[in-house]
Amino acid sequence: MPWRHTIDLVKTMGRAFQFCPPMWANALLGKPGDWVPPYPKHSEFRILDPRKPVRALHYLIDAGLFPIPFTRPGWLGLVPDVFFLQTPHVMHWQGQEETYDDFPDEAWFFINGVTTNNDVAKMQRACLTHFFRRPITIIQNPSDSIYLDVMEAAIGKTGAWMAKPAHLAEVELKRALLSDKKKIVVIAYSQGSIIMANALRKLARNPAAVAQMHKLEIYTFANACDKMNYLDKINRIPHIENYANRHDLVARLGVLAPKKRGIICIDGPVFVNELWGHLLNEHYLYRLLDEKGESNYRFDPKANPRFKPDGAPPEPRLLRYHKDALRAARRSTAY
């Protein structure tokens, strides 16, 4: 990692923590009222549900226990793999209760953030499918403890090293881009935005993928990367939108960094909600819309002065998919 980039990263982290008052827990977990039941159906807080003690214990080990520093060998099959390094993998939609076949020309992917094991990733996918009624493939970056997750994110943020999840994302997205699908939609959350940014840089070196890049749409939540850029700046391809809570600590490391001099350069409009909290379902998806079904996230020109709208302030394209989903749901119940 270059020294200049390392110094910029440390400065960015220092500025991100400059809250007054220093409510760092709230910047990650939301206001105290969010922490107590009852929770929404897909809230991440349900991962610690005492009525499912095995799942809760599994998550606490995944997120909090420093793993044995290698993947579980076959001859240790009796030892749970939760104690070992986890391997990034793809979780396809097959076998789910709902088929969601209203939009066959689209392929949707979700790339998760830190401290996310399979159970949390499935909860987040369930919430996404609830809003958008699309089958979603998870490019799963499993947690290897909060300590290694943060280290991996910090290194990946600089672009100096492509971790295995970024290679996996590049392979999966290239396959989708070269397929007959007309739209490839990626939801990248937290560390997932870092993974997506690295995968995009790798895709930019593949002429066949670049030729199909007009099909790619990237929607980030709490984008923490340093650089995520259009490959075609004139036509703004691929399409990029960023959603961030004003008081989300992780967003303040990237798309909402207090000062963006130096390393941070993220393309696309930024839509901001004046909220605390970082959890995808609890603090973003469940707060995405107001009572009238309109976006709670407003275009903030100061968050990315480099983005110049063509005329009127941009409207979130992502919400069009939600409205399409509502129309599809009404059609399915009408028969």
TrEMBL record:
Recorded superkingdom: Bacteria
Q: Which InterPro entries match?
A: AB_hydrolase_fold
Protein name according to UniProt: Uncharacterized protein
Originating species:
Sulfidibacter corallicola
